[in-house]
Amino acid sequence: MSESSEFEAELTRAGARTDTLWRKLVFFTRQYPLGAIGAVIMIVFVGAALFADVITQWSPLDTNPALSLGAPSASHWFGSDFMGRDLYTRIVYGARISLAVGIGSTALGCFFGVVLGLVSGYIGGWVDLAIQRVVDILQALPLLVMALVLAAALGPSLQNTIFSIAIPLIPYVARVIRSNTLSLREQAFVEAAHAVGMSEWRVAVRHVLPNTIAPLIVLGTAQLGAAILTEAALSFLGLGVPEPYPSWGRMLSASAAEYVRTAPWLVIFPGVTISVVVFGTNLLGDALRDILDPRQRG
Amino acid sequence: MAAYLIRRFLLMLLTLFGISVIIFGLLRIVPGNVVDILFDSAGMIDPAAKLQIEKDLGLDKPVPVQYLQWIDGLAHGDLGYSYIDEKPVLQQIAPRIPITAELGFLALVFSVLFGVPLGVVSAVRQDEPIDYICRVVSLSGLSMPSFWIGLLILMGAVAWFGDLPTYTDMPSGFFARAWLLLLPAMAVGFRSSSLVMRLTRSSMLEVMRQDYIRTARAKGASVQSVNYNHALRNAMLPVITVIGIEAAFLIGGLIVTETVFNIPGMARFLVESIRVRDYPVVQNLVMVIAVVVVVINFIVDMLYAVIDPRIKIAD
């Protein structure tokens, strides 16, 4: 039985009416109110990234000396930065950068992590031993330090930022997928697949891989938040996404400590935005974990 | 136990060796070395002078030879010279270590002082309003970038004292410095305390579901006694491991927080050196960080084996 039909059965036992999509949503909201808040935050975040040009009338790059360090007003809700660019517009467009880096590096990190974890756990032996040592080495450095060194080596650009964050994510994913694969390998259905003459490769891809999807979704959501935070930190330190991209972390960089005194809105709004979005991924991640991987329920 | 210790120790050396290779390699895949960068900025193009400088810095030798020279120096306590101000790297790093170590220590104390009690309260009162509040607070702690928490604290300091605190001149006494480092330690520690809180809570809940807890209750032990004498003690095991993992977690917070508060520590120095591509400084600082993380994890593993006898049997 697959994860989702198992979940459906559980819902029916619990007396939930989940015959339509709407009822399912209502049920999810009642059962996981914090998860629902997280989902709403994520929808707003993705919506802002997709429809940035519809949401705001200004351009994120247009400078206006007259508005330099302008306070929030009716036409410029969040004020404007040193170069007179509208902060609200830059934050809305910044969602694209955060989403690109968040999804890009999470997907890349998860892909390589899954391959390594699957190979390591499924083949075992010296391959496992070798991969585990590499994972150990990658994990011994803090995420930010590794990302900093990679970003410095590769040079500042959007692609390199995605890459610099993806690499340190690999060991975390590889660890989880490996231990999951190890336990799956001993399951009866894998043995049955072998018994009917399926090749090792087919068993791994058709039977083991699909069963690692649930922990992968849980892990991926958690990593999405970590990736967005790391991008913000890298850009804050001046080693992430370069100008003129409107990166949330970059908005807080350079003279942020000075703006604390002179233009606090430049510090408050980008910071609140990063925090709320990451908060959303964390809330949604927790709810998904409870649904997909009930053993970990806290 | 001795075999386990030796095996773990050898693995630790292997990990450090791997890190040194990766860092050294990474810093040299960049097109153009520091001499090119210096020459670009100075606008000089005398090839003879360039070759001479490359020779002085040892950059004319093949990369593996450069690597061996670095490791050989490390083994003898010689960390090389900074490209930028030509001082011995050790001389530059050494005075910064106590500052960063003290900040990290204060942050860790802060995270345990807040994280453990709140985690316990949250677990004991599971699904009550206080549990929800604690969970939301800890989740938001994990969601806020630590440099932003630092900026908010600075904002509070401006509102309170009317000015930004300065950290450029650090006093030498431990307590005088601790007083000054209290605010930045809170910025670093808040995030870690959220992690400690979440783990204390889930570990506590896990233990409270165990049979021996029910047995203790059935034998007439009070709720208080069961919660604190039985559950908390056992729940602390995984939390200790986490505090080890947190050493790595804290360093990320230290890097941005030292930058925000302008603290002349090791972590901010790493960022500055990366910006100017002062590789001898960068590679040695990263190695210092790696050694700290790996050694702390080693110590935690050993402690864990001492506290929890099952580890030894399993190995």
Low-confidence stretches of chain B: none
Please state the overall shape of chain A, judged from the principal axes of the Cα atoms: flat
* N→C terminal distance of chain A: 25 Å
Mean pLDDT of chain B: 81
Q: How many β-strands of chain A, per DSSP?
A: 0
What's the helix and strand layout?
The complex is a heterodimer of chains A (298) and B (315).
Chain A: H1 3-13, H2 21-31, H3 33-50, H4 52-55, H5 87-123, H6 125-140, H7 143-154, H8 158-185, H9 188-195, H10 200-208, H11 213-236, H12 248-251, H13 256-262, H14 265-292
Chain B: H1 2-26, H2 34-42, H3 47-56, H4 63-75, H5 89-93, H6 97-124, H7 129-143, H8 146-161, H9 174-208, H10 211-218, H11 223-261, H12 266-275, H13 279-307, H14 309-314
Helix pairs in contact in B: 1-13, 6-7, 6-9, 6-11, 7-9, 8-9, 8-11, 9-11, 11-12, 11-13, 12-13
Describe the structure.
- The complex is a heterodimer of chains A (298) and B (315).
- With 298 residues, chain A is an all-alpha fold.
- Helices cover 73% and strands 0% of the residues of chain A.
- Chain A contains 14 helices and no strands.
- In chain A, helix 3 packs across helix 14 and helix 9 (188-195) runs antiparallel to helix 10 (200-208).
- The longest helix of chain A has 37 residues, at 87-123.
- Chain A is flat and about 75 Å long.
- The model of chain A has no long low-confidence stretch (mean pLDDT 82).
- Chain B is an all-alpha fold.
- Chain B is 79% helix and 0% strand.
- Chain B contains 14 helices and no strands.
- Chain B has helices at residues 2-26, 34-42, 47-56, 63-75, 89-93, 97-124, 129-143, 146-161, 174-208, 211-218, 223-261, 266-275, 279-307, 309-314.
- The longest helix of chain B is centred in the C-terminal third of the chain and has 39 residues, at 223-261.
- The mean pLDDT of chain B is 81.
